[in-house]
Amino acid sequence: MRQFIISVGGEKFEVDVVEVSNTSNTNSTKGYNSATIESKKLVPEVTNKEVESKVQLNLGAVPIDSPMPGSIVRILVNPGEIVSKGQKLFVLEAMKMENEIGAPLAGKVSAVKVNVGDTVSEGQHVMILN
Predict the structure, then answer these.
(1) What are the sequence ranges of the domains in the chain?
(2) In the CATH hierarchy, which fold is given to the domain comprising 49-129?
């Protein structure tokens, strides 16, 4: 058995490869030997919130990101609500100033990713419009 550490999508895995045969397997491609592979994740499990933030958006979905770090003071729309371009979506407090963040385009609010009182970083998804 041989051990390798590989990186896939930025995550590191410890992989044990057990050789099954020393001869070329006719069913394998390019003469590679078949092997059994076991892997052990070396990074800690991620939370649901972290996974959700990494999930790709549906085609046509537009993320509404926080333009700066701050705290969510008010959420002015609900999932399923139709909004018009420029309509205020949420209020973000940054440096003791309240900033009303508007919709860049008309659409339907498909998800609200934060709650009132949450601290957000610049570029963090706050809402998703479709």
Answers:
(1) 2-41, 49-129
(2) OB fold (Dihydrolipoamide Acetyltransferase, E2P) (2.40.50)
For residue 58 the two structure tokens come to 């549906």
The first and second tokens of residue 13, run together, are 């895995």
Q: What angle do CA 8, 9, 11 make, to 5 degrees?
A: 65
pTM: 0.56
> Token match 């009132």: residue?
116
For residue range 77-126, list pLDDT tens digits in order: 999 999 999 999 999 999 999 999 999 999 999 999 999 999 999 999 99
Say how far apart CA 77 and CA 83 lie, in whole Å.
8
Spatial neighbors of 119 by CB under 8 A, at least 6 apart, are 69, 70, 71, 72
Tokens of 128: 């998703």
Which residues are within 8 A (CB) of 67 and not within 5 positions of it... i.e. 6 or more apart? 92, 99, 101, 122
Taking the C-alpha atoms of residue 113 and residue 34, their distance in angstroms, rounded to an integer, is: 45
pLDDT digits (tens, 9 = 90+) for 17-70: 777 665 554 454 455 555 555 555 555 555 555 555 445 456 678 999 999 999
